[in-house]
């Protein structure tokens, strides 16, 4: 018998680590975000009578010349990325040839679309020349500085060559943790950009938890002070410096299995077990890009009905601009990964200071998804719990209406509570209404907000949901998750198939009907035998 989700996570994992994975950070100049600020920068700060774009062109050309001299002096390769070429492949090859413990590996350049400032020439009422700046989208040169950082390992900075000089950083929290382990002399084995094993797992988790905004800022200060920069020291001292904000934050929870094959079978069971309950937005099969001895293709090609050979299954849950992905990593580990692409989806500002808050949200979502999967596999209600849901009760001095099993509206209500989409930030009245109306097969206006409020009230009084303080959002309680999964699984997997089997056998093909009769006879024989044994015992 294969282990349950709870058994596997408790007894069959050799390492469990939560860590910030990939982290993408924007750098922006706060004082170059409006047309007036651009004009002031040129006319007042740089000291030109007219805020002409020719001034910016000269500065850009001077910076590019400085870049080329810097690359020549340091023997740093300057590479033009080709169309369709994967930058990661080029970086991997160059890092493999880099022999220094740290430093600038190479500089890459590519033309990419960027929101930039363009100038329109005009004149005022007395005929004096004027320039008006406005935002425009244009293809401009972007310069990638690929580095091997002493604290972060492989990483890069990308700098736009046109005003307002946007910057992007690409960092990896697992690589940062590996450098800390190296500094402390703790042995570990890598799992791609994660960990397969570690000599001191507790210390590893402490290191992962230590990663914060200060580490990101130190990386930026280090390399913006090493490579040629479009804004010189005088500009930065006058306030035209880059501020950092979070563009994308990935938080991962990795469970390494003691028996990889067992873990893979479990993960595929998780997908099958939750496809109707949690209803993930997507369940995808990721075919390997390259065939190796470790990932041979199936003999007869790829077929979607085969989940256990040649493909990596993955489960996806989306919320606004963010999503959760769960997949089997390198045939060894279950990776649950929350990617936040827009911090404001969760009411958090983008500043890099808010990294700990985003990390906490990612950790909560990862744990919540695993908890749902654990409960859905073994959801059991006691007789007292079931009786309390089936009858009217008085809770905190208020009458709580029953949630009767089999009632169409109740079943849709509890099924909607099982959806994975709620793991991010819970749900509101209108969001749950949409799902329930879809499950009932009716327009949403036929399931009114008043009905939804009534249903939320009885769920809250029965202790199945709780309201988040200071918000209009609700989230499932532990008992609510068990009750919702129990009702839904019994209905979807026992009663509904059972009702279908009770259809007259003349509508079923003869061979199948004969087989069903044999099964029915065998069940009757077992029941008769059970009654006889029970009688003998009495």
What this model shows, in words?
- Helix content is 41%, strand content 26%.
- The protein is an alpha+beta fold and 538 residues long.
- The chain has 4 domains: 118 residues, no CATH class; 211 residues, no CATH class; 117 residues, Arc Repressor Mutant, subunit A (Orthogonal Bundle); 33 residues.
- The strands form 4 sheets. The chain has an 11-stranded mixed β-sheet, sandwiched between helices.
Quick synopsis:
The protein is of the alpha+beta class. The protein has helices at residues 5-11, 35-45, 53-73, 87-97, 173-184, 201-210, 213-224, 233-237, 260-274, 355-377, 383-390, 408-417, 429-440, 449-461, 478-501, 510-537, and strands at residues 13-29, 78-80, 103-123, 129-149, 153-160, 167-172, 188-191, 194-198, 242-257, 282-286, 312-319, 322-329, 333-340, 393-395, 398-400, 465-467, 474-476.
**Largest sheet: number of strands, sense, barrel closure:** 11 strands, mixed
- Report low-confidence residues grouped into runs of 5 or more: 285-291, 297-310, 531-538
- Overall pLDDT, averaged? 83
User: Count of DSSP E strands?
Assistant: 17
Number of domains: 4
Number of helices: 16
The radius of gyration over CA amounts to: 30 Å
Helix content: 40-55%
Q: Helix/strand/pairing class, anyone?
A: alpha+beta
Strand order of the largest sheet: 2-3-4-5-6-1-9-13-12-11-10
Beta-strand percentage? 25-35%
End-to-end gap: 33 Å
What spatial form do the alpha-carbon principal axes imply?
Answer: globular
């Amino acid at each position: 018998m294969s282990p349950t989700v709870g058994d596997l996570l408790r007894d069959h994992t050799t390492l469990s680590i939560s860590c910030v994975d990939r982290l993408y950070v924007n750098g922006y100049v706060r004082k170059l975000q409006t047309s007036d600020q651009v004009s002031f920068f040129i006319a007042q700060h740089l000291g030109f009578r007219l805020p002409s774009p020719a001034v910016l062109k000269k500065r850009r050309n001077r910076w590019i010349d400085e870049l080329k001299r810097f690359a020549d002096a340091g023997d740093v390769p300057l590479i033009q990325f080709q169309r369709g070429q994967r930058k990661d492949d080029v970086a991997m090859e160059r890092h493999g040839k880099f022999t220094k413990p740290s430093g600038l590996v190479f500089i890459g350049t590519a033309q990419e679309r960027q929101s930039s400032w363009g100038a329109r020439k005009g004149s005022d009422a007395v005929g004096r020349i004027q320039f008006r700046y406005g935002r425009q989208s244009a293809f401009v040169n972007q310069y990638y500085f690929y580095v091997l950082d002493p604290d972060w390992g492989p990483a890069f900075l990308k700098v736009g060559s046109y005003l307002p000089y946007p910057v992007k950083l690409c960092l990896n929290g697992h690589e940062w943790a590996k450098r800390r382990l190296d500094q402390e002399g703790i042995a570990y084995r890598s799992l791609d950009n994660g960990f397969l094993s570690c000599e001191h797992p507790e210390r590893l988790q402490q290191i992962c938890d230590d990663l914060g905004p200060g580490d990101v800022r130190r990386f930026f200060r280090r390399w913006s002070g090493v490579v040629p920069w479009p804004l010189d020291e005088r500009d930065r001292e006058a306030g035209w410096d880059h501020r950092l904000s979070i563009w994308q934050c990935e938080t991962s929870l990795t469970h390494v299995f003691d028996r990889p094959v067992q873990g893979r079978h479990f993960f595929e069971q998780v997908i099958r077990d939750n496809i109707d309950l949690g209803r993930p937005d997507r369940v995808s099969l990721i075919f390997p890009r390259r065939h190796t001895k470790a990932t041979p293709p199936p003999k007869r090609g790829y077929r979607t009905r085969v989940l256990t050979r040649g493909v990596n299954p993955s489960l996806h849950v989306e919320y606004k601009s963010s999503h959760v992905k769960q997949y089997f990593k390198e045939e060894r580990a279950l990776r649950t990964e929350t990617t936040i692409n827009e911090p404001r989806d969760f009411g958090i500002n983008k500043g890099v200071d808010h990294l700990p808050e985003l990390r906490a949200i990612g950790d909560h979502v990862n744990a919540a998804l695993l908890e749902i999967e654990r409960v859905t596999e073994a959801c059991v209600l006691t007789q007292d719990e079931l009786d309390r849901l089936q009858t009217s009760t008085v809770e905190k001095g208020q009458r709580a209406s029953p949630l009767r099993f089999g009632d169409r509206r109740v079943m849709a209500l509890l099924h909607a509570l099982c959806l994975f989409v709620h793991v991010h930030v819970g749900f509101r009245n209108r969001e749950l209404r949409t799902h329930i109306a879809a499950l009932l097969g009716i327009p949403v206006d036929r399931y009114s907000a008043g009905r939804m409020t009534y249903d939320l009230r009885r769920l809250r009084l029965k202790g199945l949901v709780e309201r988040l303080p200071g918000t209009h959002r609700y989230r499932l309680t532990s008992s609510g998750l068990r009750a919702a999964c129990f009702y839904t699984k019994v209905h979807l997997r026992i009663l509904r198939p059972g009702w279908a089997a009770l259809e007259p056998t003349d509508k079923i093909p003869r061979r199948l009907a004969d087989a069903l009769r044999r099964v029915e006879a065998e069940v009757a024989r077992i029941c008769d035998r059970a009654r006889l044994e029970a009688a003998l015992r009495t």
